[in-house]
Amino acid sequence: MQDLVSEFEPERDHLIAVAYRMLGSRAEAEDAVQETWLRYAGALADPAARAEIRDLRGWLTTTTARICLDVLRSARVRREAYPGQWLPEPLVTRLADPPAGGDFAPDPAERAVRGDEVGMALMVVLERLTPEQRVAFVLHDAFAVPFDDIATAMGTTVPAARQLASRARRAVTDGAPRNTASPAEQRRVVEAFLTATETGDIEKLMAVLAPDVVFVGDSGGHFPAARRPLVGPEQVAKFVLGLLRQLPSMAADLRAEIVEVDGGLGVLVDAVYKDGRPFRAVLSFAIDGGRVTAAYNQLNPDKLTRVPSTAEDAGGWPPR
Questions:
Q1: C-alpha R_g of the chain
Q2: DSSP state letters, 210-230
Q3: Fold for domain 183-303?
Q4: Could you write out the DSSP letters of every residue in 45-94?
Q5: Strand, coil or helix: 276
Q6: How far apart are CA 181 and CA 283, in angstroms?
Q7: How far is 228 from 231, CA to CA, in rounded Å?
């Protein structure tokens, strides 16, 4: 058994990264990887069976994919009944002394979970795919798994697996908000966004928003939130300013901090309502051409349990 553990543990971060891309939840990803471990320990406890596995990472990855596919299929029913809009669980890392060039370096464990190109905008688009399309796309385009292995994992043919990945790729290309900003540009845009909200200047805020900007909020039914995406700079600006104006008057304690969210800059807000109830929100952005093309506001406390707290010396709104 110790040999199995020593072989499996170096693959755990990779498998969690695969599962998170597919499921959009760190907790569900860890559960899927734990189930992969149980199947691995059960199927390969016999040294002869283990000897037949030439590519351990490939075997573990396809096993994780099968588990995630089952989870996604069952999650469809739950998410159809979800109150309001649905956003993935954000991966948040506090920024500690970002380099002068504007880059930011997340915790290595979080980087492993995210993989190379995870972003909230991409994760939101992945939610629109069928479970089969999502698994095929993530395996092939994100982790370069051969279509032979994808077909085996999904119980289908190689041409069918190719078609699933191709359709998913087109959907991602057509549906993802433009998100091309460098770390330095992200900081400029996020700070301009925050300055405009501080002053309540709707014209300046609209100037930071792209003409086709989209705002999505997920409260999970815990707080009032728009039930449909808001589209357009005027509608988004009015909503954001109205929302942020309420926070200082409603909260006895308010702290906000610029953080990294799924590989890009965002804002973490921690507050305590005057009746003692806690409030937390994570705001993330897609940015292109010096403007926000999409903003995602995660308010559901069930999806924020792993988010670190703001610093004790963090100020109020806007964060600095």
A1: 21
A2: EEEEEEEEE-TTSS---SS-E
A3: Nuclear Transport Factor 2; Chain: A, (3.10.450)
A4: -SHHHHHT-S-HHHHHHHHHHHHHHHHHHHHHHHHHT-SS---PPP-EEE
A5: coil
A6: 17
A7: 9
Alpha helices per DSSP H over 138-275 = 147-154, 158-175, 183-199, 202-208, 233-250
The tokens for 198 are 């501080």
> Is-same-fold flag (2-81+120-175; 183-303)?
no
Domain spans in the chain, listed from the N-terminal domain onward:
2-81+120-175, 183-303
Per-residue pLDDT of the chain in tens (320 residues, 90 and over written 9): 667 788 899 999 999 999 999 999 999 999 999 999 999 988 777 777 777 788 889 999 999 999 999 999 987 767 777 888 899 999 999 986 544 444 544 444 444 344 444 688 999 999 889 999 999 999 999 999 999 999 999 999 999 999 999 999 999 998 889 999 999 999 999 999 999 988 889 999 999 999 999 999 999 888 777 778 999 999 999 999 988 777 766 766 778 899 999 889 999 988 887 777 788 899 999 999 999 999 999 999 999 998 988 877 776 666 65
d(CA 84, CA 243): 17
Residue corresponding to tokens 């805020």: 205
CB 208 within 8 A of CB 192: yes
Fold of 2-81+120-175: Butyryl-CoA Dehydrogenase, subunit A; domain 3 (1.20.140)
For residue 278, the cross-strand partners are 272
Q: What pTM was estimated for this model as a whole?
A: 0.83
What DSSP element (H or E) covers 35? helix 26-43
Burial class (CB in 10 A: 0-12, 13-18, 19+), 31: middle
Q: Which residues contact 197 (CB under 8 A, 6 or more apart)?
A: 205, 240, 241, 244, 317, 318
Which residues, at least 6 apart from 31, have a Cβ–Cβ distance to it below 8 Å?
A: none
Region of residue 287 (left: phi > 0; alpha: psi -120 to 50; beta: else): beta
